[in-house]
């Protein structure tokens, strides 16, 4: 055989190197984070409140920056001159859906990103319809987002990002405030996507169900990186980083994805 194999020639979806960041008030939230996520991987980002998870997420498409270190998405550095392309490649579903829904109707919110990226007419309509269909919100297309329930707004927020067909999907606490059926439906959606996923979550069974690999961020540094099942079974690690399993949940009893 000649030439590199596809695995060698494809840059990782995400490469974070030595990332450190202090907020303008001087509070330092990240102290040198290294994280590589290969194409097609699904990785959970775990860690206690205040660990720096959202701060890290906000660096992935350049909302925050100018600290030390670097972030690359599929080989492209997150830098001012690349931001338009980076924002096409990185789809972030924010912790609060109200941070990303601002148009008069659901349809316009989902169309906003693809339209900004140059899609028009029937192609744009198809993209919007497919994304809404995917999250089970097609019949809500003409409703104002602010009339929807929290869980419905979360689904629309996911659709706004799916409509961009991103290289990497980043979700900040996707299962919070979802009812059990919606939580499972979102898991089914995420499993069905052929896309790299980085998922911030406090929902440890959800991490185990969806992500073969987890990373623990604690105090602004990566404290652990390994198989989700191994990390959840490591009682000392879990205690040290304030990670608690729900009552009665035994991660050993679950057949984890590989
Ligand atoms: N705008 C800000 N200005 C100053 N400090 C901030 C700001 N936003 C967050 N921080 C601080 O940075 C640290 C990391 O916050 P971050 O929101 O990234 O945590 P998190 O891991 O996402 O927590 P949670 O699980 O509660 O969502 C915290 O100590 C927080 O108080
Ligand atoms: Mg957060």
TrEMBL record:
For this UniProt entry, what is the primary localization, expressed as one broad class? membrane
Tell me the superkingdom of the source: Bacteria
**Keywords noted in UniProt:** ATP-binding, Cell membrane, Membrane, Nucleotide-binding, Translocase, Transport
* All residue ranges annotated as the ABC transporter domain in the record: 14-244
Which Gene3D superfamilies does the UniProt entry name for this protein? P-loop containing nucleotide triphosphate hydrolases
GO MF assignments: ATP binding; ATP hydrolysis activity; ATPase-coupled transmembrane transporter activity
| PROSITE patterns, sorted | ABC_TRANSPORTER_1, ABC_TRANSPORTER_2
Q: Which family does it belong to?
A: Belongs to the ABC transporter superfamily.
Q: Which PANTHER family is this protein grouped with?
A: ENERGY-COUPLING FACTOR TRANSPORTER ATP-BINDING PROTEIN ECFA1, HEAVY METAL TRANSPORTER
Q: Name the chain's protein.
A: ABC transporter ATP-binding protein
